[in-house]
Amino acid sequence: MNRFFQLKVAIKDLYSSIEKLHAAFEERPFTPDGRLVGDIGEAIAHLEFGVIIDVK
What we know:
By secondary structure, the chain is mostly helical. 64% of the residues lie in helices and 0% in strands.
């Protein structure tokens, strides 16, 4: 499989995953600009520890 095609598929899958994350946690933006990992961490902290994140 060509690497360009692999990249294209991976990015498409990433955006699909972001849509699913946002549907589950509408208050988090889950933007793929560097916030994504932090937003996932906050969602996990909420689920595992009941942490309430102040959304601005």
